[in-house]
Amino acid sequence: MFDILDSELIFPEDFGRNYLFALERRGGALAGRILLYSYLRIYPRGLPYWEPLRATLSRLLTRGSSTAARYRYTNLSQILLAQNGPQLLAQHLLHTDPGRYLRKLGLIGELARGRFIEETWESLAVILTKGEFSDSTIATRVFLALSLESNSAALRFPKRLTELAQGLLTPWIGRGMDFPLGIRNLLSTHLGDPRPPSVVWEGVSPTARAVLRQSWAGTAIEDFFLILESLALHDPGINPHRHERRAWWWSAWKRGMVTDAWVALGSAVPPTPPSPTRYATIGGRVRHSALLIITSGMTVVEWSNSATDLLWYPQNPAVPQLYKPHYNPEELARSVDRSVSGSEIARLCE
Fold this sequence. Notes:
The chain has 350 residues and is α/β, with parallel strands linked by helices. It is built from 13 helices and seven strands.
């Protein structure tokens, strides 16, 4: 459809005003609907014809005394044609079914991806990141509804990945272990793994990225001990205390004491159950695996064949770094500050 408000077309201001005047006199309601379509798709706020356009649309589309005309007038004047329409729509969507209400306004199809809805989405992102709505669960649900295409996991605004991640993660700062897996999978699908360094994630704040790292830490702990169970079927050298250690680390993660975790698989380890993430490998013919954990600022490495854990304090220059794709066995055991049991770690973390 030809777009009469295409922002790439620059007209003198007088021409735009005269065009709108002629359109109002001769075009009628049909011209108003075409003009409204362009207005919602382009949403030319700040251009010279902005105010005349809003006034013309209001007169074209709200003529008549019928109930339908009055309904159109209410929605057009109070939301779509209001000075701060996207902000008003964002606030309204927080108190209703967003999909149903957008359909009622006719904001579907191409208009659902138009600039008016994109500014509404931007307003919801600000509401989430600034905590301006009392129920973050409702605000997140509405933000997601505008972020995704109808009945699809495809993003409505795929170029706005940074704002999407920041908006969805901010309400969960400080409680990443409860972060919804559906949202975690959505962000990982579109932005990739947030743990290794990535250009895509650079625009997202460190505190927001920490939410995902803490959520993935629980998965890493669970994966490590599932791998141990698989290996224990054929390897008597696997830590006999693995059940107690799994219970301890899982409890520590649920209490928010574990903020990061990563798994390094020995290169000689036989195939194990598939994991939802790609973990590191340990070079050489190493037949044991290691779990790297950050807890209370300390780094702990638990080997699959050891009843004690190795601990480094953060100021130790030899502390192993998480999220590397490959490790040498020595770097996961050298210059250790302490070798500790599970009960000792519990006391250190309290």
